[in-house]
Specification:
heterodimer, A: mainly alpha, Cytochrome Bc1 Complex, Chain D, domain 2, two-stranded antiparallel ribbon, 50% helix, B: mainly beta, Neuraminidase, 5-stranded mixed sheet, 4 helices, globular, disordered N terminus
C-alpha cells in the first residue's frame, strides 16, 4: 500500500513537471470567463453577434483559418467596415492590446472551439510572435 | 460664357445615385391573401402582413395614394429602396419594385418629393403622380459630413416649412480616445461635438448643401437620435436618443451587469434651437430621475457636476432598448387617446448581455400641449417571437420604422427579414 502511495506521488510529480512544459501551451479553461468579460457584450454569449453592428463568430469562415489575422484584429482593432459573409457591420473593433498573450490565446481558443467552430487552439507563443512582428513593423 | 460654380456643382451632385436598372420582383415578397400579422395589440386593433422578405428594412414612408417606400440596410439586387403598391386593394402589396443604388436609412415624403438618406448624405428625388417609382436621378440635398463608422445613419425630419433637420450621431461611445477601452478618460472638451452628436439644420430645397458651409448646428450633446420627428401641433422637433453603452464592461468596479442593463435611460427630447443635452459628459439615470456625470468625466454614480446645466428628457425609457423611429399620430382611424400622441419603435437591445435583452416592441406615449400626458405603454409586441431574447439574433423580427397610412393606419417595418405590418382599428 505504501509503495502504491509513493508511486502515485511520483506520478503526480512527473505529471506536474510535464505540465510545466506542455500545459502552458494548452487552454486553461479561462477562455469562457475572459470572453464573457471582454467580448460577450458585442459578439454575444452564443457568438451570433448583432445584425448590422458586430460580426458573428459562429458562422464566419475566418474564425477557423490560421489565427494570425484574428490575433492581429484583437491587438490592433479594426476601423474598416467588416464585411463578413456578405453582411456589413457598422461598429468598430477596439484595439485590445492591453490583454496579455495568454489571455488572447485563451479567448481565441475558446472562440475557435465553441459556437460550432472546430479549429485548432491558439498558443500564447503565437500571440507573442504576432505582437512582436507588429511592433517591428511600427518601428520600421 | 462663364458657368456659375453652383450650376456646375448641381451637375456633379445630381446623378451620383442612379435609379436606373430597376428590377421588378413578382412573387418574392408578395402575399396574395393578407395574413394576420401575429402581433400583440390593444383591444380592437388588428395587424396584417403587407409584404414579407423584402430585405433588412430600415425606415418606411407611405404616400397619399397608399404606395409604400421602405429603406433597406443592405442592397437587394443592387438596390437600396423598395416601393410597394397594393393594386387590388386587399391590403397586401402586389407590385414590388426595387430602385436606388445606395443602401438607405431615413425616408420621408414631402410634397412631390421622396427624401432618403444613407450613412453619408440626404438625397431627394421627385415622384411622378400615379407612378410607383421615380424616373429621374436623385439629387444631393445635404452632405459634407465627416466619415464615421459608428452611429453614421443620417436620419432626418422635415418641418414642412422649408427646413431639414439631420441627425449626426457621435462617432464614439463616450468621446474617449481610443473608444470603448476600459478606464480611458473622456476628452474634455469633447472635440467630436464640433461636427457630430447633434442636429444640423439645412434648407429642404437647396441642392448640394455642405455641413460646414450651409448647415446650422441646431442642437448638440445628443449621442445618436435615429428617431426624430417634427410635431406639427406645436411646431417643435422631438428626438429619442440612444444612450451610451457598456457601463459595467468599462467600469466593472463601479457598475454591475444588472445596473448596466438598466442604465442609462434612452431619453426622449423636445429639441429647441441652441439646446445642449449633455453627451458625452452626462447620462440620464431614470431610476433616480437625474442627469449624472459620466464615469469618463469623473462621475461616481451620484455626482451631477456640470450636468445640472444639460437639458433633461421629457420622458425616459429603459436602457439600450434602441428607439429607432418616432411618429406623431395625426390620423382619425385610432381612438381619440392616440390623436397627436407619439409612437416609438424600439429595435431592441444588444448591450444588456449577459442578461436578457429588452425592447423589440412599439410603444405609445399620450401627448397634450406638446408634452407627454401619461406614462408610455407597449402598443405592439410579439415581434421577437415567443422565446427569450438572450441575443438579438434570437429575435425573429425587430420593429424598426413607422409610418402613417392615408387612412390613419400604422405601418411598421422589420429589420431582420423585411416584413411590413399594417395596423388598423376596427
Amino acid at each position: 500500500m505504501i509503495m502504491h502511495r509513493t508511486e502515485l506521488a511520483l506520478l503526480l510529480i512527473f505529471t506536474n513537471i510535464a505540465c510545466i512544459h506542455a500545459c502552458s501551451q494548452k487552454p486553461s479553461g479561462e477562455g469562457k470567463a475572459l470572453y464573457a468579460k471582454h467580448c460577450l457584450v458585442c459578439h454575444q454569449a452564443d457568438g451570433s453577434g448583432v445584425p448590422g453592428m458586430f460580426p458573428a463568430l459562429n458562422r464566419t469562415k475566418k474564425i477557423s483559418e490560421p489565427a494570425d489575422e484574428l490575433i492581429k484584429i484583437i491587438l490592433s482593432g479594426s476601423q474598416k467596415p467588416a464585411d463578413t459573409e456578405g453582411e456589413i457591420y457598422a461598429q468598430v473593433m477596439p484595439a485590445m492590446n492591453y490583454l496579455t498573450d495568454t489571455e488572447i490565446a485563451e479567448i481565441l481558443t475558446y472562440i475557435r472551439s465553441n459556437f460550432g467552430n472546430k479549429a485548432t487552439p491558439v498558443t500564447a507563443r503565437e500571440v507573442s510572435r504576432v505582437r512582436e512582428k507588429g511592433k517591428r513593423a511600427v518601428k520600421k | 460664357m462663364i458657368i456659375p460654380q453652383k450650376l456646375l456643382l448641381l451637375g456633379v451632385f445630381s446623378g451620383l445615385i442612379s435609379i436606373s436598372g430597376l428590377c421588378q420582383r413578382k412573387g418574392s415578397g408578395n402575399i396574395n391573401v393578407p395574413q394576420d400579422g401575429g402581433l400583440i395589440l390593444p383591444e380592437g386593433f388588428s395587424s396584417i402582413i403587407v409584404a414579407d422578405n423584402l430585405g433588412p428594412g430600415r425606415h418606411i414612408a407611405v404616400r397619399e395614394n397608399g404606395d409604400i417606400y421602405l429603406a433597406l440596410r443592405e442592397l437587394r439586387d443592387g438596390k437600396g429602396i423598395v416601393a410597394l403598391r397594393d393594386k387590388d386593394g386587399n391590403g397586401s402589396a402586389d407590385s414590388i419594385v426595387y430602385f436606388a443604388d445606395t443602401r438607405t436609412t431615413g425616408i420621408e415624403l414631402a410634397g412631390d418629393f421622396l427624401y432618403f438618406s444613407n450613412f453619408e448624405e440626404v438625397w431627394r428625388v421627385p415622384l411622378i403622380p400615379g407612378e410607383l417609382i421615380p424616373a429621374s436621378a436623385p439629387v444631393l440635398i445635404a452632405g459634407g459630413f465627416l466619415k464615421q463608422r459608428p452611429h453614421a445613419d443620417k436620419t432626418f425630419a422635415l418641418d414642412g416649412q422649408g427646413n431639414l433637420y439631420v441627425n449626426v450621431g457621435a462617432p464614439s461611445n463616450a468621446c474617449t480616445m481610443p473608444d470603448r477601452i476600459p478606464g480611458t478618460p473622456g476628452l474634455d472638451p469633447c472635440p467630436q461635438l464640433e461636427r457630430h452628436a447633434g442636429i444640423w439644420r439645412f434648407s429642404d430645397n437647396v441642392q448640394g448643401q455642405d455641413q460646414v458651409r450651409d448647415g446650422h448646428r441646431y442642437a448638440s450633446g445628443i449621442r445618436n437620435s435615429i428617431a426624430l420627428a417634427w410635431n406639427h401641433t406645436n411646431n417643435k422637433l422631438y428626438v429619442v436618443q440612444h444612450g451610451r453603452d457598456q457601463l459595467s464592461q468599462l467600469y466593472p468596479d463601479m457598475y454591475t451587469d444588472k445596473e448596466n442593463a438598466e442604465l442609462p435611460a434612452e431619453e426622449f427630447f423636445l429639441v429647441e434651437e441652441g439646446d445642449f443635452f449633455g453627451w458625452p459628459y452626462c447620462y440620464y439615470d431614470h431610476i433616480r430621475k437625474v442627469k449624472l456625470l459620466a464615469p469618463e468625466y469623473g462621475g461616481n454614480k451620484t455626482a451631477t457636476g456640470r450636468c445640472a446645466d444639460a437639458k433633461g428628457p421629457i420622458m425616459a425609457f429603459p436602457g439600450h432598448t434602441a428607439p429607432n423611429d418616432l411618429l406623431f399620430y395625426t390620423g382619425d382611424m385610432f381612438p381619440a387617446k392616440y390623436k397627436d400622441g407619439a409612437f416609438i419603435a424600439f429595435h431592441g437591445s444588444w448591450n444588456r448581455a449577459p442578461l436578457e435583452q429588452e425592447g423589440y416592441y412599439v410603444c405609445f406615449v399620450p401627448f397634450r400641449n406638446g408634452l407627454p400626458s401619461g406614462d408610455y405603454e407597449i402598443f405592439a409586441d410579439g415581434f421577437a417571437g415567443t422565446g427569450h431574447v438572450k441575443s438579438p439574433n434570437d429575435a425573429r423580427f425587430r420593429p424598426m420604422g413607422l409610418a402613417q397610412g392615408p387612412d390613419g393606419s400604422l405601418y411598421i417595418s422589420d429589420s431582420r427579414e423585411g416584413r411590413i405590418w399594417k395596423i388598423s382599428f376596427k
